[in-house]
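Student: I would love a firmer grasp of how sequence relates to backbone shape in proteins. I am handing you a single protein, as its sequence and its fold in token form. I am told such tokens are a discrete way to write the fold. I hope you can help me see how the letters and the tokens relate. Take your time, and here it is.
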Amino acid sequence: MAVFTLQPTTTSFGAAYTNVNRIVRSLDVPGAAKRAGSWFGTWGTDVNVRSNPTTGSTVLTRLPAGVEVQVSCQEQGGTVVVDPYTNDWWAYLPLYGGYVTNIYLTSPDNQLPGVPLC
């Protein structure tokens, strides 16, 4: 399957990525199974996805600004401080096989609502 879109040239990569992802998620493909998890927006540029829920673990990839990511579970790990925020909760992103600090996810609380523990 291929999905093509036309978007204004002023659309950021993160916004275009999210727009296409929303279209694909909405498709009802016979025989396909939807992955369990909740979707959250991100903020920040080049947000690290790490192999474990600590800032000292290997960086697997970096997320562009403003994308939506699927979170399957969350757990406490290393404390991250991005002034004025402090958080030790990390979200597991199954599509990337790693963790991102909850600081960079759009949620009003340190722990993500409705997301189970890993």
In short: The beta strands are 38-41, 47-50, 59-63, 68-71, 73-82, 85-93, 98-101. Helices lie at 13-26.
